[in-house]
């Protein structure tokens, strides 16, 4: 799966064909890929915010205390794992609408490999300069969208005229899940899990 993970980034159209021939289960996706990939953003942000510190424009750096950053990083990790699972279920739920006929395992494979650039972009958290993180995040998001539309055609095999609409629907659900995660973060902050900054 590691080979496919990098292959889908460098030559996605050919790699999707190879991935389609494999018989990965949703558990394989978690064991071999997601448990490790999902650790990149929270671990990188934890190190960056506690050691380097946040900066908006290269000015003053603001660091978080380890005690406040650690639970946030752990919750972030599990939120990413759950978010991918929710996305795979959403894809599986929508597939019949767009004329596809794929198992939940295949939906999880599509979701896992499509989200790879976003997880890899988490390394930007090691240098948490706001403009840098936003720039890397936007590049990763654009490439994720490109992978999604390519992957839907190959992995899900909907009718040709439905592929674009299917991909767009998946993208829309992804944005809803992202907003839900942000809302959950705000609620947790309101319940006392706010970050604590060092002086």
Write the layout of secondary structure elements.
Elements: H1 2-10, H2 12-21, H3 26-37, H4 40-52, H5 66-94, H6 104-114, H7 116-120, H8 130-156, H9 160-190
Helix pairs in contact: 1-2, 2-8, 3-6, 4-5, 5-6, 5-9, 6-8, 8-9
Features:
elongated, 199 residues, 9 helices, mainly alpha, single chain, 74% helix
Explain what you see:
The protein is mostly helical. It is 74% helix and 0% strand. It has helices at residues 2-10, 12-21, 26-37, 40-52, 66-94, 104-114, 116-120, 130-156, 160-190. It is elongated. The relative contact order is 0.15.
The oligomeric state is: single chain
| Uncertain regions spanning at least 5 consecutive residues | none
Radius of gyration: 18 Å
Q: What is the average per-residue confidence, as pLDDT, rounded to a whole number? A: 86
**Counting H and I runs of at least 4 residues, what is the number of helices?**
9
What pattern of helices and strands is seen along the backbone?
HHHHHHHHH
Beta-strand level of the residues, as a percent range? Answer: under 5%
Number of domains: 1
Protein structure class: mainly alpha
Described by strand count, sense and barrel closure, the largest sheet is:
none
Fraction in helix? over 70%
Overall form: elongated
Q: How many runs of DSSP E, i.e. beta strands?
A: 0
Distance between the ends: 44 Å
